[in-house]
Amino acid sequence: MHILPDRLYTAAQTREIDRTIIEDHHISGSELMSRAAKAALDILMRSWPQAKHITVFCGAGNNGGDGYDLAHQAINKGFLVDLIELGQPDKMSDEAAHARQGFLSTGHKPQAFSGQVAETDVIVDALFGTGLDRPVTGHYAEAIAAINNTVQARILSIDIASGLNADTGKVMGIAVKANITVSFLGLNQGLFTGDGPHYSGRIYFDDLETPESLYKTLPTSSQLARFEHYKQQLKPRARSAHKGDFGHLLVVGGNRGMSGAARICAETGARTGAGLISVATHPEHAHWLNIDRPELMVSAIDSATDLAKLLEKASVISFGPGLGQDAWSNPMFNALLEIEKPMVMDADALNLLSQRPAYKSNWILTPHPGEAGRLLGMSSSEIEADRFHAVKLIQQKYGGVVVLKGSGSLICDGSTTLVSTVGNPGMASGGMGDALTGIIGGLLAQKKSLFDAASLGVILHGMAADRAAKEHGERGLLALDLLPHLRHLLNLK
Question: Which helix (H) or strand (E) holds 334?
Answer without folding.
Answer: helix 329-338
